[in-house]
Amino acid sequence: MATDLIFQGGAPSNERPIDLVFGEVDTTTSAQTGALHITLQQPTFSGSGAYRSNNASRIYAGAAAGWQTAKPLLEEQSAPWAGSTPDFVEAAAPWQPASAQRVDAAAPYQRVQIAHTSAGAPWAASQPLDVAARCVHGPMIGIQAGHSNAWEQAISIGAERTARHQEMLRNGRPLIQHRWQVAHQLAAELISRSNASAKRWMAQRYPWDQARRPPAGKSSTITPLPPISPPCYTPPAQDAVELYFSTQYQPGTDLIFSCKLFDLPAGLVIPYRRVYVAAHTITVTTYPGGATVVLTDINITTDADSYCWSLSATGPVNLMEQLAPSSGAPAQIRISIDGLAWVFAVEKIGRTRQFGQARAQLTGRSTTSALDDPWAVARTWTNTSTINAAQVLEQVLDLSGITPDWSVDDWLIPAGAWSHTGTPLSAARRLAESIGAILHSHPGQPTLQVLRRYPLMPWEWYGNAIAPDVQLPLSAVLRESYERRDAPAYNRAIVSGTTQGVLGIVTRAGTAGDVAAPMVSDPLITAQEAVLQRAQSILGPTGRQALIALDLPVLTGGTLPGVLQLNQLTEIIEPTETWRGLVRGVQVKVSGAKVRQTVTMERNLA
Amino acid sequence: MTTINPFARLLQLLPSDPLRKGAIQVTHADGTATVELAGATGTLRVRNPLGLAEGGGVFIQGLAITGQAPDLPVVTLEL
Questions:
Q1: Angle separating helix axes A424-434 and A389-396, nearest 10 degrees
Q2: Per-residue pLDDT tens for A520-550?
Q3: What ipTM describes this predicted complex?
Q4: From residue A333, how far is each of A84, A301, A341, A588 by CA, in Å?
Q5: Which stretch of DSSP H or E encloses residue A547?
Q6: B2 contacts A545 by C-beta, under 8 angstroms
Q7: What is the CA radius of gyration of chain B?
Q8: For tag attachment on chain B, is the N or C end more exposed, with fewer CB atoms within 10 Å?
Q9: What is the DSSP letter of A208?
Q10: Mutate which of A305, A459, A584, A599 to test chain B, going by most B C-beta atoms within 10 A?
C-alpha cells in the first residue's frame, strides 16, 4: 500500500535546510581513497611569424636608377625566375625597421638645451639631461636586436630576388617604345620620290648585269669590250650627205647642225618643279562689245571628233537679258584665260529660280557654228569640173565669214565626184571625213581647220629626230586616269573610190599586210593623196592602245604650253619611263580662281 | 577608232552597212552570185537582182548587188 507524503509551504533554502530522514541513517560508511594515473603526451607548440611592411619604395627607386640601360637582360624574361612571387620578397626586405625615427627624436642634439646652462654652470645642468637622452639609445639598440632574429639574416637573398624581378619588368618597356620611334622615320623616307627612281635607272642602263658563271666546257679567251656608242653622224651609202639642222634658217651664214643622236628639244616644256604656282587672269566680255559678263564655273571642252569648242557656264540671272539673241544673231562672248582667248556664240541660255537663289545657265559653241543649224540653211553642191579639195572647202565657206585653214594634203577631185546636200558645216565635215581628217575650230577666230588625224603615225612618235611638241614631267600632273582601248592590229587598209578615183591598197611598212581592215569606199577617194590619208586614219588606231587623261595646271608664259591643243605630240616624263601621246581632247575648267585642264591623250602601247 | 567623243562612240556601236566593191566570180541559178571583194579580202554570196554577168565589178550593200562598178586603177602604197 502506497503512502503519499504531501509537503506544502515555503521553498527550501540553503540557510535552513530541512532534513527529512526516512529510516535509519547509515553511519558505518567510511571514506574511500584511491589514485588515478593519467599519462599525457608531451605538448608541442608550433607557430610562424611574418613581418610585412609595404614600405619598399626606397628599394624601387634605388634599383631603377642603375639598370635602365641594360638591354641584354631581355633574354632573361624567359628565365625560370618568373614564377617566384615578388610579394614575399618584398616582405623579407631588410630595411624595414623604421624605428630609426625614434633615434632621431633621441638624437644628441638636445645639447641645444645648453642655452639653459649658459645662465649657470654649464656642466652641472647638462648632466641630467644627457642621462635622459642616452636612455633612448639603450632601448633603440634593444629593438634592433629584437628584430635581428633569424628572419633578418635572409637579407642578401631577398635583395637578389628583388633585383632580378625589377630588371625583367623594366626591360620590356623601353625596348617597345624604342621600336615604334624607328618606324616613324621609315614612313618619312617613303614619301621621298627621287631615291627609288634613281636606282631603277641605274639598273636598267647597266650593261653588265647579265654576267653569269661560265658554263661547262672550254671558255673563250676573248675579252669582252665595252660597247662603242654610235657616232653622232653616220654618212649614208654612196657618198650621200644628210644634214640635220637644229634650228630653222635665220639671216646669216651660220649653219647650226644637230647631232641626230640627241633628242631634239621640245618646243613647249613644263619644267620639273616642286611647286607650281599660277595666278590666273580671267576676263569674260561680250564680243565685240567688250562689256563685262559675270560667269562662274566655266567649262570649255573640245575633242578630235568635235568640230568646235563647247562652252557651258553659269552666272547671275541677268545674263538672260545681257546675252539674249538680237535680230536673229546669237550673242557672242569672249573668254580670256591668261591671254588665251575663246570666242563663243551663246547657243542656249536658261535660268533656274528657287527661294533665295536664281541662276542662269548657258551653253555655247565656237563661232564656226554659224555654218550649222539653225543659223545656216541646207543647200546642194556639185562640181562640174576638176577641182581641188581645198577649193571645195572654200566654196563651202564662201560668204559665211568663216575662213578655211587647210592643213592636209590636197588632192584632185574630178568632175562629178563631189556632190552633197546639207548645211555648209555638213559639207565640210563630209570632205574631212573622206580622208579621215579632223575638223576643228580655232578657239578665238572664225576659222575652220582641217587637220591630219595623225601628223605622225604612232610608230613614228619615238625617235631622236622627232621632237615632241610638249614635254612635261609627271610631277606637274594632278591626276591621271588610264583606260585601255585595244583594237585589232590591222596592217593593211583597202580604200577605194566608187565610180571614179582609184583603188588603194596600203600596207604598213615592215609588216606582211596579212591583216586587212574592212574595205572603205568613198566617192571622194579620187587620188593617191586621199588614199594615203584615209589609210592613215585606219591604220593609226590599231593594236594595243590606251586613253590617258591628265589633269594639269594651266601655266602660261615663256615656253610653258598653256592650254594644250589637239594633235600635239606630248612627252610625259615619269620616274620609270618616258612615253609620248597625241592630244585627242582638251577640257578647261574654271572654278573661282582655280583653272585646270584635262588633257586626254592617245597612247600606243605597241 | 580611238575617240572620246560620246556621239562618235555611239555611232561605232550602231550597226553599219558600208558600201563595198567587188567582182562577180560565179552567178548561181537561184539569183545569187559569189562576189570577190576588192583587194582579195574574201568572198561573199549576195543577191543579184540586176542579173549582172560574171567578171564585172559591182557595188554591194546589204548583201545585194546594187549596181555595176567601174574598174579603178589600183595603187599600192606603204605607210
A1: 160
A2: 999 999 999 999 999 999 999 999 999 999 9
A3: 0.91
A4: 90, 16, 10, 16
A5: strand A545-553
A6: yes
A7: 16
A8: N
A9: T
A10: A305
d(CA A585, CA A303): 4
Provide the CA B79 distance to its chain's centre, in angstroms. 24
Q: Find the mean pLDDT for residues A111-131.
A: 45
Q: Is the pLDDT of residue A354 over 90?
A: yes
Interface with A, mutate which of B41, B72, B74, B76 (most A CBs under 10 A) = B72
Backbone φ and ψ for A196, nearest 5 degrees, come out as: -65, -35
The mean per-residue pLDDT over the stretch A48-67 comes to 59
Please tell me if residue A372 touches chain B, with a CB cutoff of 8 Å. Answer: no
**Is the distance from CB of A492 to CB of A542 less than 8 angstroms?**
no
- Could you tell me which residues come within 8 angstroms of residue A240 by beta carbon, excluding any fewer than 6 positions away? none
| Mean model confidence pLDDT for chain A | 78
Judged by a CB distance cut-off of 8 A, whether residue B10 touches chain A is no
pTM over 0.95: no
* Beta carbons of A457 and B39 less than 8 Å apart: no
Is the CB of residue A506 less than 8 Å from the CB of residue B41? no
Q: Which residues of A touch B77 (CB under 8 A)?
A: 504-507, 528, 531-532, 535
Q: Count the neighbouring beta carbons within 10 Å of the beta carbon of residue A94.
A: 16
- The phi, psi pair for A435, rounded to 5°, reads -110, 10
B36-60, pLDDT tens digit by residue? Answer: 988 888 899 999 999 888 888 899 9
Asked whether the predicted pLDDT for residue A394 surpasses 90, the reply is yes
The identity of residue A318, as a single letter, is N
Q: Is A301 on the interface with B (CB under 8 A)?
A: no
Interface contact A508-B76, CB threshold 8 A: no
Residue A257 pLDDT exceeds 90: no
DSSP-assigned states of every residue in A37-74: ---PPPP-------------HHHHHHHHHHSTT--GGG
- Residue of B32, B27, B35 lying closest to B60 (CA atoms): B35
For residue A169, the SS3 value is: helix
Mutant choice from B2, B11, B37, B71 vs A, greatest count of A C-beta within 10 A: B2
Distance from the A495 Cα atom to the nearest Cα atom in chain B, whole angstroms? 9
Residue with cell string 555611239? B10
Does residue A186 carry a pLDDT above 50?
Answer: no
Q: Is A263 within 8 Å of A462 (Cβ atoms)?
A: no
